[in-house]
Amino acid sequence: MRKILPILLMTVLLISGCSADDPITDDIYSSADIYANDIYTGDIYADEVYVDGVPLSDSVWTGSTANNAPTELCCLTIRAKSALAFAMKIVASNNTADEVAMFTVSDGLIIRDSANNTTLVSGTVVTVYEDDASWDVAIAADDINEALIIIVTGDAVNTVQWAVVMDKVETDS
Description:
- The protein has one helix spanning 6-16, and strands at residues 2-3, 29-30, 35-36, 54-55, 58-65, 71-77, 82-94, 99-112, 118-130, 136-142, 147-153, 160-170.
- By secondary structure, the protein is mainly beta.
- It is elongated.
């Protein structure tokens, strides 16, 4: 494992023309020192990059809804005594009716205190575009499971495919 300064890693990414489709987005971790195992020119890989062992990466979830009932698409457990800041992009499609939608979540903050109370402090859901006005996205704190949950509402008739990408940073407990 080689130690790499953050500015060097960012320089390599900028020079190489790294985009969101490149493998670097999947395995990035945050910490005071950054380490990278596999750095190549062309396709950039940064496996096992750490900053105090705290994950700092995009998380991706996919799923579908078969009706218009609010459905938990995914949940992310929050570490004890920590805070998680996040932003999301959510896209949905109904290939039967050729309908799509895009939502964003900005300024998200969820905390879990020392007594294991999980609270959604902030988060703004914005509908960027939707062909079907009945589709919806909501975020909430699940205090029982100590998690952030993403709830989606799809189409009453057709199956809707959903994909979520979350950019997040979480404090260490």
